[in-house]
Amino acid sequence: MASTYTTYATARDAYLANAVYEEERSVAKARTFISACRSLILLGPAATGAGESTVSFDPARFEKELQRAQTYVQRYSTDATDQGGVRSTRADFTYLRG
Q1: What is the pTM of this model?
Q2: What was the pLDDT predicted at 15?
């Protein structure tokens, strides 16, 4: 189930909490990360700050992260579960005893 973030702060928190999806080999975290990236792109300000200390917002950075997470989900998602991991493409019965 996709998450919906209505504030920049909650989207940022989800982004940071789930950025470790590759390290933890979690497709579920990657999906949440994707939702957070989408929300950050939509909710992010063009720029923020006052005077000379203005910070620009670059949505392209989040779009790149979103694409990377989507690739991860496509590669490691299984039909039966959302646990992630590498799919088995062939079985090796070399050491199977009958």
Answers
A1: 0.72
A2: 96
Question: How far is it, in rounded angstroms, from Cα 42 to Cα 50?
Answer: 22
Looking from the CA of 18 toward its CB, the CA atoms found within 13 Å total 22
Measured N-to-C along each axis, helices 59-76 and 27-43 cross at an angle, to the nearest 10 degrees, of 160
Tell me, yes or no, whether 94 lies in a domain: no
Q: Please write the tens of the pLDDT for every residue from 40-91.
A: 999 987 777 777 777 777 889 999 999 999 999 999 998 555 544 455 566 6
Q: Is residue 83 part of a domain?
A: no
- How many Å apart are CA 57 and CA 63, to the nearest integer? 12
**69 lies in a domain?**
yes
Question: How many domains does the structure of the chain reveal?
Answer: 1
**What pLDDT score was predicted for residue 84?**
46
Q: At what angle do helices 8-18 and 27-43 cross, to 10 degrees?
A: 150
Give the range of the structural domain holding residue 43, as residue numbers without chain letter: 8-76
Residue reference for tokens 């779009």: 63
**Phi/psi at 57 (5° precision):** -105, 125
